[in-house]
Inverse folding.
């Protein structure tokens, strides 16, 4: 840092608030990118200086305590308290200036994303100096996205200048009709009241074009959330589809298998507090084993003694679900537990200013399809899958051919429960983990299985995404509760016409 910049920083601690705007301009000219940490801290209201030697420090919170750090190195400055520092004042005028300064400095960054973000920040601060900077940088800008954002900013400034020729302003407004930036829409709304009728008409036309694009992207956003809900329903119901289809068991404890998977994820994170980014890869097989083994235990101790008595299995599994819920309450307490999301699943993928896809839902969607494909391969290519299909089509004939139906039942129930545990891992990334987590999905899971066709995996896939998308498209107009009711009524009416679902089982034993 040169001596001129250092003297300006010292002057910053002595200058009155009314004189600070001039000092900001000098700091921008002299310091440039080196002073970005200072400008950011000042904008946030966290910039202070030590009263003893006028050294700048930034107030930060560490473990709930106020501490101070060097704005350039980020090192904690030990031995000072709030009594040893004084805050550098900031008002709305200065905040506006600081935003512009930060954006202008970032315009020359080597990172294209930073440059694009800087231009976007400047859309509300387009003064003559900023526009001159953009015009000088525009011809040499190599990144297409940054150049497009610069073009939008220049067009926005041109459209607002009443001194410009009407034809020039109309051309700029026409260009803005392709932009989805909120600041562009706000300016076009103001231009609808422009004194010139042609300008007002052009602004209205551009707004109509923008609003049409926004509506289309809103539909895409709804579709994404529908697919996201469908992926969760798929994971929650796919295990139920094979146990219900093979064994004919109405397993009311299936939701608790999901819950066990979610709590397994929570426990794994407690064991690996410093490896949250990797803990989910441990949690997936662990949840499969915990829920799968619990499923085998339930089948061997209870379900195997109730074959051919569906109502009794319903009551028995309902009782098991209550026992498992109370067991979890006893071990973990009734309070919800929060599972941390790995950093690589956090945030969102911003496609444009009005459409962004959350990464955790995107990963869960892809994960659910991978689990579905893996299960299909197991059932189609493995000996277990062959036995499962044989038992589901004709249990008596399979037993007569030497298939160990008891073993198949146990493995099928364990496999279905294990997949439910994996669903719990996915749900832990979307909601809090609690004893009643599975109860929120058990009814929907049965609806998916019945709607798709009992024991049919393709039907489960289609039904899960159909119901998920239907729910999300109905919710904006009817509300979440009424949307769920309408979907339930639809399924009831559908089953009246097609009792075996979308994809009924085929063969002589299908009846």
């Amino acid at each position: 840092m040169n001596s001129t910049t250092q003297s300006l920083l010292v002057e910053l601690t002595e200058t009155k608030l009314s004189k600070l705007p001039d000092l900001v301009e000098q700091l921008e000219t002299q310091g440039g990118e080196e002073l970005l940490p200072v400008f950011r801290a000042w904008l946030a209201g966290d910039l202070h200086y030590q009263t003893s030697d006028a050294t700048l420090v930034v107030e930060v919170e560490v473990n709930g305590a106020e501490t101070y750090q060097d704005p350039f190195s980020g090192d904690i400055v030990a031995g000072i308290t709030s009594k040893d520092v004084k805050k550098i004042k900031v008002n709305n005028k200065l905040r506006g200036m600081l935003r512009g300064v930060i954006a202008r400095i970032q315009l020359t960054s080597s990172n294209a994303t930073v440059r694009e973000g800087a231009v976007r920040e400047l859309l509300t601060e387009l003064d003559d100096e900023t526009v001159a900077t953009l015009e000088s940088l525009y011809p040499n800008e190599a990144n297409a996205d940054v150049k497009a954002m610069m073009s939008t900013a220049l067009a926005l400034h041109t459209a607002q200048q009443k001194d410009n020729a009407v034809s020039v302003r109309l051309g700029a407004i026409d260009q803005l009709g392709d932009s989805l930036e909120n600041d562009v829409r706000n300016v076009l709304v103001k231009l609808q009241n422009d004194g010139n009728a042609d300008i007002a008409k052009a602004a209205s036309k551009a707004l109509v074009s923008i609003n049409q694009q926004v509506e289309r992207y809103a539909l895409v956003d709804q579709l994404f959330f529908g697919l996201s809900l469908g992926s969760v329903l798929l994971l929650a119901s796919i295990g139920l589809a094979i146990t219900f289809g093979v064994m004919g068991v109405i397993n009311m404890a299936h939701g608790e298998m999901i819950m066990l998977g979610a709590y397994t994820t929570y426990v794994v994170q407690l064991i690996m507090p410093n490896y949250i980014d990797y803990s989910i890869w441990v949690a997936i097989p662990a949840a499969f084993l915990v829920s799968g083994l619990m499923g085998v235990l339930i089948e061997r101790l209870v379900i195997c003694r109730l074959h051919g008595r569906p109502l009794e299995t319903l009551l028995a599994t309902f009782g098991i679900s209550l026992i498992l819920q109370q067991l979890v309450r006893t071990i973990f307490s009734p309070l919800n537990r929060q599972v941390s999301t790995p950093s690589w699943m956090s945030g969102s993928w911003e496609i444009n200013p009005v459409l962004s896809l959350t990464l955790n839902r995107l990963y869960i969607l892809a994960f659910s399809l991978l689990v579905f494909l893996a299960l299909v391969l197991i059932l189609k290519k493995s000996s277990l899958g062959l036995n499962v299909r044989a038992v589901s089509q004709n249990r008596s004939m399979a037993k007569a051919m030497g298939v160990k139906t008891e073993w198949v039942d146990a493995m099928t129930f364990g496999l279905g429960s294990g997949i439910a545990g994996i669903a719990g891992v996915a749900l832990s990334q979307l909601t809090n983990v609690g004893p009643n987590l599975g109860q929120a999905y058990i009814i929907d899971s049965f609806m998916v299985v019945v709607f798709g066709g009992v024991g049919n995996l393709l039907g489960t896939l289609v039904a899960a995404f159909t119901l998920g998308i239907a729910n999300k498209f109905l919710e904006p107009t009817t509300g979440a509760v009424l949307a769920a009711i309408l979907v339930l009524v639809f399924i009831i009416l559908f089953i009246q016409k097609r009792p075996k679902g979308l994809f009924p089982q085929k063969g002589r034993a299908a009846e």
Remarks:
- The longest strand covers residues 56-62.
- The longest helix spans residues 197-247.
- Residues 167 and 199 are 9 Å apart (CA to CA).
- The chain has 20 helices and six strands.
